[in-house]
Model the fold of this input.
Amino acid sequence: MFLDLLPYRLSKGRLRGIWRRLPLIHLAASVILVTVLVLGFGYVPGPVGALVWFLGGCALYYAPGPGLAYGLKDNRAFCKYACPAGVLARPAARYSLVKVAGDPTKCNGHAECIAVCPMDIRIIDYTRLHLRVLSTDCILCQNCINVCPDGALNLSLGLETHGIELLRTR
Ligand code: SF4
Ligand code: SF4
Done:
């Protein structure tokens, strides 16, 4: 929510290469730091120490967000290239019940939805395959639904597993 207050709401596209691996590197570095401190040095913080680590960790976690947004001119740069929580959330997000769904018979293919997607998701590719937007990067901002001139997109309730749709309301 905070990141969406920054000035670069429209993404210029997703960076490739090492940028894609940064969230995993961030997560690994965090796990290694805690493991070394606890197992290597026997460090167990008391209540004050735990609070300091918590506040310091939160500051370190969120501080790069605005910097990345301004540096890359992309409000959601932190979500795409730095957030370790996204790595952990992916398995659950794949099976989330609420997702964006497209109607290929209404879609004009002009990609207005992709142009406003802050996470650079190729929504049309899913629609053409009669799939809901399965990307675990979707933040359900609904920009794509709101901009669609032909009403081809909507939220749907459903559950897919191994390519089989078990439940769908639309
Ligand atoms: S904005 Fe709507 S009509 Fe246009 S490409 Fe996307 S889903 Fe299709
Ligand atoms: S809901 Fe938002 S993040 Fe998800 S596909 Fe649509 S525009 Fe992209």
Remarks:
- The two ends are 28 Å apart (CA to CA).
- Residues 102, 107-113, 123-124, 127, 147-148, 150, 152-153 surround iron/sulfur cluster (ligand 1) (CB under 6 Å).
- The beta strands are 98-102, 153-161, 164-168.
- Residues 89 and 136 are 8 Å apart (CA to CA).
